[in-house]
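As a warm-up, study this chain.
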Amino acid sequence: MCEQGETETPRGGDPHRAEEPLPRSQQGVRVPQTGSASSAAARALLAVNLMGLGVLWALVFRLRPLLPDRIPLHFGRNGLPDRWGEPSASSWLVLPLAATIMTGLMTALAMSVGALARRWPGMLNVPRKKEFVELPPGARERALRPLGLLLLTFPLPFDWLAGWIAWCTYEVAIGSRHVLAVWPVFAIVGVELALTVAALLALRRSIIRETTRAAPSAPQG
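Now compare it with the structure written out below.
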């Protein structure tokens, strides 16, 4: 029994010691998995991917009934059409189908990065692989966050390029233009290469950061 104004001291505890808060994992709050594809940035990229695919499919279906009897089926390196044919479903829908397959594959890979990091880290070809494999599972998963974001970013330029080619194919077919501008193709390839280099550098820095965190601190003499 405590008198009014006094605080009951926990049995066996220190009356001057403040109660330490519980870890977030024990407070009923889910700790975000920053090393997996379930992070906020990954969800945002996935939403943008789906919107890009939706716009691409809407474009090709909108142009489908407007196509003439013959359309360009292939363009040469100079941007001029070198093969013509009927606008069949297999020829007209090949670009959005390829974009959809690419988005699905990249999303599946991004979602499996965390499991690979935890269970089979040796299967991943990453910078500083020896140090990466020796990290704890949670640290390996956090270190691979840039790789997951790269996989989800990769389809976005390709979706734009597929829409550009579909629109130019339609314009060449109806005679509004005579050549497919090839500069966007090289621009998209450059963007993809730049994204890959940036992600690899970020991945290397992430592995170094997690390795530093996991290293035992030197004893103070």
